[in-house]
Amino acid sequence: MTHTAPHATAFRIQHSALQEANAVTNLRHPAGEPILFKVTRGQTLRIVDLEGNQAADVLFYNANDVAEHYSATDTLLRQGGIYLTTGSVLYSNEGQPMLTIVADTCGRHDTLGGACAAESNTVRYALQKKFMHSCRDNYLLAIQHADVGLGKADLVPNINFFMNVPVTADGQLTFADGVSGPGKYVELRAEMDVWVLISNCPQLNNPCNAYNPTPIQLLVWDPVREAA
């Protein structure tokens, strides 16, 4: 039997017309650190890969009901592809659109590779790597400090923005060199009020980021109002 690789969503590069000076939020988020913040319906979130090939591990939750969250399976089934890019709609576990990617200068984002954890550090690298800082630990720290109703059981498969994880013909994941670069970004419009949970990946064992985690930039814009 001949096996073919899963369908890979084509690169769809789209630049944004939004100006940084008009953003209501503009912050530089340190390498290796977590953050949890709210984006309301109609607002646009931009995540910028400041120095190139820095994975931003992201989860989204309905801000009004945290039991509803980003669903990798619903999202990939509906779009018919295994990568995210311009035009991709991120769906929840209840089948509702959460966010839409409206601009993307990178062109490919992974939603299969998952977040690094103590266990995956052990399996992928070495036993002594178990207690190195990881995205899963970052998530747990962020939700514990935020106290918004999220717990360990709410950590579901995430999106790895700016990360390239090709799938082979026999279904294996390969952590390849990145396709991002300094200043590339992805922009998402919120279709509902969402909590945004980010671990700016602290991984020191993966050559994708040259073993050097770097900062990202986070910007948010309010909806553009039409002139009367």
Structural overview:
The chain is of the alpha+beta class and 228 residues long. Helices cover 12% and strands 27% of the residues. Strand 6 and strand 7 form a beta hairpin. The longest helix is centred in the middle third of the chain and has 12 residues. The N and C termini lie far apart (63 Å).
Mean pLDDT: 85
Shape: globular
Topology, number of strands: 12
Structural class: alpha+beta
Task: Give keywords.
single chain; 228 residues; alpha+beta; four-stranded antiparallel β-sheet; 3 helices; 12% helix; globular; disordered N terminus
Tell me briefly what this model is.
With 228 residues, the chain is α+β, with helices and mostly antiparallel strands.
How would the blueprint of this fold be written?
Layout: E1 25-29, E2 34-39, E3 44-49, E4 56-62, H1 72-79, E5 83-84, E6 89-91, E7 97-104, E8 109-110, H2 118-124, H3 135-146, E9 159-161, E10 184-190, E11 194-200, E12 216-221
Antiparallel strand pairs: 1-12, 2-11, 3-10, 3-12, 4-9, 4-11, 5-8, 6-7, 7-10
